[in-house]
Amino acid sequence: MQIPWLLLVMAFALAGLVGSFSIAGVSAALFLLWFAHECRQRGIFELVLPVRILRVLHFLYDFAVDLAVSNLVMAWDALTPRDRHKASLIRVPIEDLSEAEVALLSHRITLTPGTLACAVTADERFLLVHAMYPTKGDMSRKLRQPIDILKGDS
Predict the structure, then answer these.
(1) Rounded to whole angstroms, how far apart are CA atoms 19 and 148?
(2) Is the sign of the CA dihedral 37, 42, 47, 48 positive or negative?
(3) Pairing verdict, β 88-93 and 115-120
(4) Which of 1, 39, 41, 99 is the most buried (most CB within 10 A)?
(5) What is the CB neighbour count within 10 angstroms for residue 58?
(6) Can you give the three-state secondary structure of 106-144, one letter per residue?
């Protein structure tokens, strides 16, 4: 159930970004998302595109998914009478990243609703992130995943 719902949300987001927010625009966006998914499943992208472009496209796809999901979570929390947020401060390890990668990661985290990159520790080993909706499990790994996608570590 998660994949069809995600495709529908991504289609509306893509149609809104393109500017053709209509039945035809959403249908076209759904078709493009389905086509991209099929090409990825069959390995066609690996034959046509260089690895670096694939990583950037995966990074952008991951950002769009996180953006859509976090917006839905924030909207649900705002529309329901019960507060579901549990604010916390998370340490994301960044000791093996360059300054540009740390900057990209902090901007990516801050652009996603519900998370905010606060500061880098004095010893430059961790990025402190304020998260309104922390998930179960290793949240620091999930927050660092976009840079690992670009580097090819995931």
Answers:
(1) 32
(2) negative
(3) unpaired
(4) 39
(5) 17
(6) HHHHHHCCCEEEEEECCCCCEEEEEECCCCCCCHHHHHH
Query: What CA–CA distance (Å, rounded) separates 55 from 47?
Result: 14
pLDDT for 113 = 84
Beta-strand relationship, 88-93 and 126-131 = antiparallel
**Beta strand spans in the chain (E):** 88-93, 115-120, 126-131
The per-residue pLDDT for 86 is 85
User: What is d(CA 103, CA 99) in angstroms, rounded to the nearest whole number?
Assistant: 6
- Identify the pLDDT of residue 130: 92
Distance (Å, rounded) from C-alpha 121 to C-alpha 79? Answer: 36
The conformation of residue 84, written as its DSSP 8-state character, comes to: -
Locate tokens 């917006």: which residue? 71
CA distance linking residue 16 with residue 61, whole number of Å: 16
Could you list the mean pLDDT of each consecutive 10-residue stretch along the chain, which spans 154 residues?
59 62 63 70 66 78 84 86 86 89 88 88 92 81 84 72
The answer to whether residues 54 and 45 touch, using CB atoms and an 8 Å cutoff, is yes
pTM over 0.85: no
Which two tokens mark 99? Answer: 């300054």
